[in-house]
Design a protein that fits this description.
The structure is a single chain. By secondary structure, this protein is of the alpha/beta class. The chain folds into 2 domains: 167 residues, HUPs (Rossmann fold, 3-Layer(aba) Sandwich); 118 residues, TPP-binding domain (Rossmann fold). Helices cover 26% and strands 24% of the residues. It is built from 8 helices and 15 strands. A 7-stranded parallel sheet has the order 5-9-4-1-2-3-10, sandwiched between helices. Strands 12-11-13-14-15 form a 5-stranded parallel sheet. Strands 6-7-8 form a 3-stranded antiparallel sheet. Helix 2 links the parallel strand 2 and strand 3. Helix 3 crosses helix 4 and helix 5 runs parallel beside helix 8. The radius of gyration is 21 Å and the shape is elongated. The N and C termini lie far apart (52 Å). 43% of the residues are buried.
């Protein structure tokens, strides 16, 4: 058995989710390779070739692949799989990248995809959450080749001390799809990325408006924290979409998650339950969030946040 991990990157650096996916792959198969597809990849290749548990890195570096358009990436990955038919498992992170790419690969291979695995039992058997994380399903696949997406927060990132072999793959004959890149609107922030942050402070509907999120900024600065929000706050227009944490947003697992003015809907809990510690501030002592919190404070957030910032 042999596993192939599709590398998530921005052409310059590797996303942490890839290193967690490699860890999952190493628990499935003794032999793990990585495939990176893009354009002008030298910096990213230098990083991924250091990944422990990887036997070999394959590189498809081609004009037209600089943007992560799944229709283009999938055709090249499928052509690669035709030339290397020894893989029994193909893994991607369960991120926007993986969720967009893996179904296209599975469809063309005519196999069922297993999404969002959180635990590996053996090469055929895995655990994955269902019903917004309220239940865990143990599933077994008999497919000849298994297409898996991996929840990165459930696997520690592999180390980066190796110097593995790198092989360039020439797929110039593979055509690009009719889908073309128009624009990429990326939010810029000096704060840590939500999915990799060690500390996150999030606000919910209780913040009342977007201006009040400034009350969280000073605390976030002192803690070196990323800032997030519940779906209710995002839907109300308080903060941008990329702040959303939860089942329909970003799945996070920081060392500390601070929930401010968040009631604790099931979908939000599903996105934060792997956090090491959860601390909550809410004036409603019956708020469901307290059932899942290690520390809870029943208080008016508008009174307690300035005091908390002074104490830090």
């Amino acid at each position: 058995m042999k596993a192939l991990v599709i590398v998530e990157h921005n052409n310059k650096s590797i996303k942490t989710s890839t290193f967690s996916t490699i860890t999952a792959a190493s628990q499935i198969c003794e032999s793990v390779d990585a495939l990176i597809v893009g354009n002008q990849l030298q910096e990213a290749v230098d990083e991924i070739k250091k990944a422990n548990d990887v036997k070999k890195v394959y590189v498809i570096d081609k004009d037209g692949l600089q943007n992560p358009i799944a229709e283009n990436l999938s055709t090249h990955i499928l052509e690669f799989l035709k030339t290397k038919d020894e893989y029994t498992h193909v893994l991607t992170p369960s991120s926007t990248f993986g969720k967009n790419l893996s179904p296209k690969i599975a469809t063309k291979l005519d196999v069922q995809q297993i999404s969002d695995i959180i635990k590996v039992f053996d090469s055929d058997t895995f655990e994955r959450p269902i019903y917004a994380g309220n239940a865990i399903a143990k599933v077994k696949s008999n497919e000849k080749i298994k297409i898996l997406t991996v929840r990165p927060t459930c696997f520690e990132p592999c180390g980066q001390t190796s110097n593995v072999e790198v092989e360039n793959v020439n797929l110039e004959s593979v055509d690009l799809s009719s889908v073309s890149f128009v624009a990429y609107d990326e939010s810029k922030s000096d704060r840590p990325e939500l999915t990799s942050a060690k500390v996150i402070i999030s606000g919910g509907r209780g913040m009342q408006n977007g201006d009040n999120f400034k009350l969280l900024e000073g605390i976030a600065d002192k803690l070196g924290a990323a800032m997030g929000a519940s779906r209710a706050a995002v839907d109300a227009g308080f903060v941008p979409n990329d702040w959303q944490v939860g089942q329909t947003g970003k799945i996070v697992a920081p060392d500390l998650y601070v929930a401010v003015g968040i009631s604790g809907a099931t979908q939000h809990i599903a996105g934060i339950k792997d956090s090491k510690f959860i601390a909550s501030i809410n004036k409603d002592e019956e708020a469901p969030i307290f059932k899942f919190s290690d520390y809870g404070l029943v208080a008016d957030l508008f009174e307690i946040l300035p005091e908390l910032e002074k104490k830090l």
